[in-house]
Design a protein that fits this description.
The complex is a heterodimer.
Chain A lengths: L1 H9 L6 H27 L31 H37 L1 H16 L2 H11 L5 H12 L2 H14 L3 H8 L4 H12 L1 H24 L10 H10 L8 H29 L8 H23 L7 H5 L1
Helix pairs in contact in A: 2-3, 2-12, 3-4, 3-6, 3-7, 3-9, 3-10, 4-7, 5-6, 8-9, 10-11, 10-12, 11-12
Chain B lengths: L17 H6 L1 H33 L4 H12 L4 H11 L6 H13 L14 H36 L4 H14 L3 H15 L19 H38 L2 H8 L4 H13 L1 H25 L4 H10 L3 H29 L1 H5 L3
Classes of the chains: A mainly alpha, B mainly alpha.
Chain lengths: 327, 358
């Protein structure tokens, strides 16, 4: 136990505030998906599927925090309960996507030669075939069979090429480093080099792209459910959007029905964007906006130079070109 | 969106000798195009084969299910039943024989008869939707590329300026929202609450399509919201990508030299820095065509826009397998063709792309 706590302490949050906010949003939704359904169903006594036509299409109120649907279901309860399926699909599909992309990308980049040529060609070919239409036709053939797991599987199997390409590029820059050569000298097998040397050194990149894959899969799942494919009878954010569209929530102006599930998906997308953005800034300091202190010092330096310059030029009877100093 | 990675230099690639490079330049260009053409031919073959295999590998028997469903509407002739089996798999017939008949049908644009639009042939149905989607995708992807890249140049040449500190987070935020949900919000705000713009369709329902003023005005009016959604969703990615490349390029020596020569700021920014910084974005343009088309399918559904995406929605909701299959094929092949064109343009403007093997 104490070792676990010590381990936790050693896990430091990255200093970049964008990354911190992004991680906080993810943790919030993870907790919501884990604990939310219990709280809503057992503590608050709400049901996501109880039909009550006497209270249909109600505006948000104290009784129904986010209003009700056209059949009188509680939108808030649906939102909380639905978070579990949406995150689960994202997580499972994200794991499949990331695993495939790591295997193909790292193996190709490390092995080189014919194996690499073959894997790269396969990756590029799969990359240019548009994913969403493929997803739609596969999903419509398996419609209703297998539930959310099938949807996750289909998404995961079609989304890997982007990541594979990126990981191959990263592996190429690692494969001639000393630690890889050292492992090869000690008689490590190729598979051993890949799993024990390369993949751990790529861990930061892999974890960021895993995050991206989870979010991408959640978007894809929501899109599929919105079209009525996949799991429209299980409560998820995607199926909520489908029923809202089906119940003409738009033309009836029932914003409380379709804004919350979409906003949750969007919030998770923004969190991933923040983390990505923050990591870009960490790896390339030029992208960072100068801190307040630095800007203040630069301004002081400019003023100083301008003052000196104007003093010198004032004798020549010309005003100082202050704007020039700003560039 | 992160910076498009400039692939690390492959140490094993043979660098052509300077003397040879000049002589083989023209040959290299031809070889580059041939290689790309070969690549896209393989991709097209894969798309066609996937289209063939998916209904045959799926559990159950889509062909029989389809025939049963169609016979509820209309009695089918023996020929029609036979045609459906040929498109979706005859039980018992060797896969290879099925593949040959399937290829033959595809070559003749013979995709069978639509269930949703019975008894119109599938190809006829698709032909009505294609111009809408091609028009919207073409317009919005070029528009968002140009707008985003130009804004990225301005943003990246002065990190931390007022423009940059507003535009960059804003576009990052826009880029991380799900396309079709943004479309729903726009419908709610501009269509339902304010009722400024029409919320569905490609033109006024009581108009006859034709090349006349009122009809074109109606098309334009109906296109505003879908186009706005698409541009909003993708402009940010271009901005951030271009900004990040600009930041690196601006500190290169030749930019410093240009500035030292006293050239105007705009000239340094656009003619020196941006020209080189834009190359990864152009290369990325080809790869995003597929994503844009995928996003547009869902946006078309929200707006009931009469393009390929809405047809796909109709096909999915009425289990119209013939239409669905043909749409997948047409969309994939169009995306491949667009990719090939974008790739070729890139090969023309950046000679380095022709030299490296990929």
């Amino acid at each position: 136990m104490s070792a676990f706590v010590r381990g936790l302490r050693r896990l430091k949050l990255p200093p970049n505030p964008k990354v911190r906010v992004g991680i906080a949003i993810f943790v919030f939704f993870a907790l919501l998906a884990l604990l939310g359904p219990f709280v809503v169903q057992n503590v608050m006594g709400l049901s996501p599927s109880d039909v009550d036509t006497a209270q249909a299409m109600e505006l948000p109120s104290a009784k129904h925090l986010l209003g009700t649907t056209a059949t009188g279901e509680d939108v808030f309860a649906q939102l909380v309960v639905g978070s579990r399926i949406s995150l689960l699909v994202g997580l499972v599909a994200g794991v499949i996507t990331t695993t495939l992309s790591v295997l193909v990308g790292v193996a190709g980049g490390y092995l080189g030669g014919r194996a690499d040529s073959f894997l790269t060609a396969a990756t590029n070919v799969c990359l240019v075939i548009p994913g969403m239409p493929l997803l739609i036709i596969v999903a419509s053939y398996v419609q209703g069979r297998g539930g959310w797991l099938t949807v996750a599987l289909v998404i995961g199997l079609t989304a890997w090429p982007w990541g594979a390409r990126q990981k191959r590029a990263q592996t190429l820059s690692l494969r001639h480093r000393d630690f890889v050569s050292a492992a090869e000298m000690t008689g490590e097998s190729r598979w051993g080099v890949i799993t024990r040397e390369l993949i751990p050194s790529l861990a930061p990149i892999i974890s960021v792209s895993f995050l991206g894959a989870v979010v991408g899969s959640m978007f894809a799942d929501a899109g599929l459910s919105f079209m009525g494919l996949g799991n429209i009878n299980i409560t998820s954010w995607g199926s909520m959007l489908y029923w809202a569209q089906n119940g003409a929530a738009l033309t009836r102006g029932a914003w409380w029905w379709f804004v919350p599930p979409g906003a949750c998906i969007a919030l998770i997308g923004v969190a991933a964007g923040l983390i990505n953005f923050g990591i870009d800034e960490i790896s390339n300091p030029r992208l960072r906006k100068p801190s307040k202190e630095v800007r203040a010092r630069a301004r002081a330096a400019r003023l100083h130079a301008a003052a000196g310059g104007s003093a010198a030029r004032a004798t020549a009877g010309k005003p100082a070109p202050v704007q020039e100093a700003a560039s | 969106m992160t910076v498009p990675a400039l692939g690390p230099v492959d140490a094993t690639a043979v660098e052509p000798r300077p003397g040879r490079r000049l002589r083989s330049a023209r040959l290299g260009t031809a070889r580059y195009f041939l290689r790309r053409l070969g690549f896209y031919a393989v991709a097209a073959a894969l798309a066609i084969t996937l289209n063939f295999l998916i209904p045959r590998l799926m559990p159950g028997d889509p062909a029989s299910a389809l025939i049963a469903q169609m016979q509820q509407k209309q009695t089918l002739s023996g020929d029609q039943v036979h045609a459906i089996y040929r498109l979706f798999g005859t039980p018992g017939e060797p896969l290879w024989d099925q593949y040959v008949t399937y290829l033959n049908q595809v070559l003749h644009f013979n995709f069978g008869i639509s269930v949703a639009y019975y008894p119109t042939p599938v190809w006829e149905v698709i032909r009505t939707g294609l111009p809408w989607t091609v028009g919207l995708v073409g317009l919005t992807s070029v528009l968002s590329f140009v707008l985003g890249t130009a804004a990225g140049v301005v943003s990246g040449s002065r990190v931390g300026s007022r423009f940059d500190s507003f535009m960059t987070p804003a576009s990052m935020f826009m880029g991380s929202l799900p396309f079709f949900w943004v479309a729903l919000i726009l419908v709610l705000v501009f269509g339902v609450q304010l009722s400024w713009l029409p919320t569905s369709g490609g033109y006024d329902g009581d108009m006859l399509p034709g090349f006349n003023g009122p009809f074109l005005a109606s098309v334009l009016q109906h296109g505003i919201l879908p186009a706005l959604t698409m541009v909003m969703a993708s402009v940010g990615g271009w901005l951030v990508g271009m900004r990040n490349m600009m930041v690196t390029t601006v500190s290169e020596d030749y930019v410093l030299l240009a500035r030292a020569k006293g050239l105007s700021k705009a000239r340094v920014m656009f003619q020196y820095a941006a020209r080189n910084a834009v190359l990864p974005s152009v290369a990325g343009f080809a790869l995003t065509i597929g994503t844009v088309v995928s996003g547009q399918l869902l946006v078309e559904i929200v707006f009931a826009y009469p393009g390929v995406g809405y047809l796909l929605y109709q096909a999915v909701s009425s289990v119209d397998y013939p239409l669905m299959q043909a749409l997948f094929l047409i969309v994939s092949l169009s995306v491949l063709a667009a990719n090939f064109i974008a790739d070729s343009v890139y090969g023309l403007i950046d000679p380095r792309a022709r030299e490296t093997r990929s």
